[in-house]
Write a structure and sequence with these properties.
The protein is of the alpha+beta class. The chain contains five helices and eight strands, in the order E-H-H-E-E-E-E-H-H-H-E-E-E.
Length: 230
């Protein structure tokens, strides 16, 4: 389960269809042991991109709450989550900064969450450090391997397009402006700025596609036929 909200307000807590930069920076800050009021300037300088390896599906959780004596009824809330999704998030920065973050993700100071506190990761989140740019790590010849689940791969075609959402370069057209750059996580004055986003993609070969094994064993059995008929 994951939830990456960038425009959640009051009773409606939405999620984007992929990890947000603010959510990943928050995860990195937690791994480093930073408090909500600690500065983030060094993390904001990192370039960020995410590859959609397994899109998953959106779930809605409709919640009601009240005090134990029923004297106070809290507002009804609708919270949205991503289920069965898998992503590769890449950050780009100075070698020493990346190495320090890799060590922090391997030995986090605070618990890590996939966007929302109710979504702890099911496995370690750190994959590897790779040479080159953030885009090289997501779509280059020696990029991070496709991490979709085996059952998901079996349902996909021989070649699969993987969407990529990344920070825009200064000299390229912007596809979207998102309020997804955290200025402060401080609960008393939480602030976010906008960042320019580009939508990209890459292709991977799917060796587990069920379409490769077209000569599967067939049977004349009819599950709708009544037993005992001649």
């Amino acid at each position: 389960m994951q939830s990456w909200g960038t425009d959640s307000r009051f009773a409606f807590r939405h999620t984007r269809t992929h990890p947000s930069k603010s959510g990943v920076i928050g995860l990195l800050a937690a791994a480093l042991g930073r408090r909500r009021s600690d500065p983030l300037e060094d993390l904001l300088e990192l370039r960020f991109g995410v590859r959609h390896d397994q899109p998953g599906r959106i779930l809605r959780d409709f919640q009601t709450a009240a005090s134990l004596d029923r004297s106070r009824i809290l507002p009804l809330t609708q919270r949205y989550y991503l289920s069965d999704a898998a992503f590769v998030a890449a950050i780009e920065g100075p070698d020493d900064v990346v190495a320090n973050l890799a060590d922090a993700l391997t030995h986090p100071k605070f618990p890590l969450y996939l966007g929302r506190r109710s979504c702890p990761p099911a496995s370690p989140v750190f994959l590897s450090t790779l040479p080159g740019s953030m885009l090289d790590a997501l779509a280059g010849p020696d990029c991070s391997p496709w991490i979709a689940a085996r059952w998901w791969r079996q349902r996909q075609p021989r070649r699969v397009r993987l969407d990529i959402t990344r920070d825009a370069n200064p000299d390229e057209p912007t596809h979207e402006m998102v309020r997804d750059l955290p200025v402060s996580f401080d609960s008393d004055h939480r602030q976010y700025s906008v960042r320019a986003v580009v939508h990209d993609h890459c292709w991977v070969t799917n060796d587990r596609s069920a379409t490769i094994h077209s000569s599967r064993t067939r049977t004349d059995h009819d599950p709708c036929q009544m037993w005992g008929e001649n």
